[in-house]
Amino acid sequence: MKRAIISADDFGLSVEVNEAIEIAHRDGLLSTASLMVAGPAAEDAIERARRLPTLGVGLHLVVIEGASVLPHKRLPLVTGPDGWFSSSQLGLGVDYFFRPEGRKELAAEITAQFDAFARTGLRLDHANAHKHMHLHPTVGGMMIEIGRRYGLRAVRVPLEPPEPLYAAGTYTDTLGDAALRRWTRLLRHQARAAGMAANDWCFGLAWSGHMTPDRVAALAAHLPDGVSEIYFHPATHKNALLQKLMPTYEHEAEFEALCSSEFRTGLEHSHTARCGWQDVLPA
């Protein structure tokens, strides 16, 4: 049986992202979105989510390249004076794993982000992390452990199999891709040990920022059995912030893909049922 969770990241990053998510859920195929609780447009996102009761909203945990909830004085090691996490996966990865103060600050910030989400009054649908930082064993473990206190029951595992990508279009598998697939086993183990739901497959990594209508329509025809999460970075317009953070991303094309009849038809022809995280929770 094939099922697909169609999701969007970066809810709350900008009004343009929020607009795209609202329209793609109302008129397109989008079923879930992941909220940046400290994003520049988080309040706008929350307001939109409250009038979209069928949109599953989860936490998009930001512990890299984004704003923190706690002030810099509470996170002096892992954030800059501007209250932003750096873009260095290596540097932050070392701080989070090897440095006790880094782990202490990480735990405090993860707690603060779940707490901020709880204050929205929205149901916590799922959780994942910006730039897939929850693949880091410390980040993933803390996200799951702390999230359980707030009712977390579902986690994204970013395992992207190469075969559907080969079948759907141009793709070159690398040793890094293969290593990443093996590394996801730890996160899946952490989720299962906590009794949480996780997707079987995930699409949007190799073509991140370039999930265009033609690509996703082709991908839909080759989805594997099981639960696939297909995630996007949509926006109605690429503003200055999106251009700065993701200069090569095709946000508007990804928005178009979420509303395209070709994508819908591809899912139907492959007998893939759309679902949400609440549909795959363990009994």
Automatic annotation (TrEMBL):
Q: What is this protein called?
A: PTS cellobiose transporter
Upper taxonomic lineage: Bacteria, Pseudomonadati, Pseudomonadota, Alphaproteobacteria, Acetobacterales
Q: Which NCBIfam families did the record assign?
A: HpnK
Q: What is an example of a GO molecular function annotated in this UniProt entry?
A: metal ion binding
- Keyword Magnesium among record annotations: yes
What is any one GO biological process for this UniProt entry? carbohydrate metabolic process
Under the heading Pfam families, the entry gives: YdjC (PF04794)
According to the lineage, what is the superkingdom? Bacteria
